[in-house]
Amino acid sequence: MGESNDGAKQWLEDELEDNLAEEYELELSDTPVAKEIGRVYKKDHPKTLDNKEYFRHLLALQSELIKLQTWVGHTGAKIMVLFEGRDSAGKGGVIKRITQRLNPRVCRVVALPAPSQREQTQWYFQRYVAHLPAAGEIVLFDRSWYNRAGVERVMGFATTDQVEQFFKDVPEFERMLVRSGILLLKYWFSISDEEQQLRFLMRIHDPMRQWKLSPMDLESRVRWEDYTRAKEEMIERTHTLEARWHIVEANDKRRARLNCIDHLIKQIPYAEVPHKQVTLPERVFHPNYERRALPAELFVPRIYG
Length: 305
Fold this sequence. Notes:
Number of helices: 12
Distance between the termini: 28 Å
Number of domains: 1
Low-confidence stretches: none
Order of helices and strands: HHHEHEHHEHHEHHHEH
Radius of gyration: 23 Å
């Protein structure tokens, strides 16, 4: 009996360690090159939270996200969150931490590529409408229709008339979404010029992250001020009572994630859903059943033991 308890305890410890390892794995991309590159700057990079404090807060917030997910499924709520910001501002990082422990059937991410030739002939919002949440769903947009007010405008992919029409249409479009019962949240991740340069350098020198750096990202450095002016007008003209903008100070990635998730949770009037206690049923054994051995060639080679 004692050996059985010791084995169960060891299994539980292994599971918890694996759980924390998953958290560390996500964090690895934030640290290896950052310290070395940061030395070239006169200003110190913001001192971030240590692992213990960061994970304590993150796990507590993720626990609340699970309660929120249960409430969404129970009530049939429809939640949509837009994440916008400059390249490398940290949108993807916070989205990963939000979705990490949630059911992908309830909470899904939408990250659309550049529009096809056919989509370019459609009503501008048409390709986004197909991804709106149904009852019991949370949809996170990693960039959204605000591409027209940002990259499309700055890079010349949209005409002046198209941009102006967008600004006229988007407030009413978002009001329609809210009137339909969708809870809409919009976040802008704000980073400094120096911080973006640091993160781009990290991507250049880190082979695990070079895929994140596109020609468009490099061009955005040249047009920093154009993007700033575009962002300022976008927020001014699309910040409405029904669909407010929320700005996340994102120079410190860890604090930005925690602050954003905390704020998101507090915007939704969810409550803990009572549920019956789950009990594991007894396994049924059949005396005549004999498990067949599978051919050895079906098994993945045990390279790592």
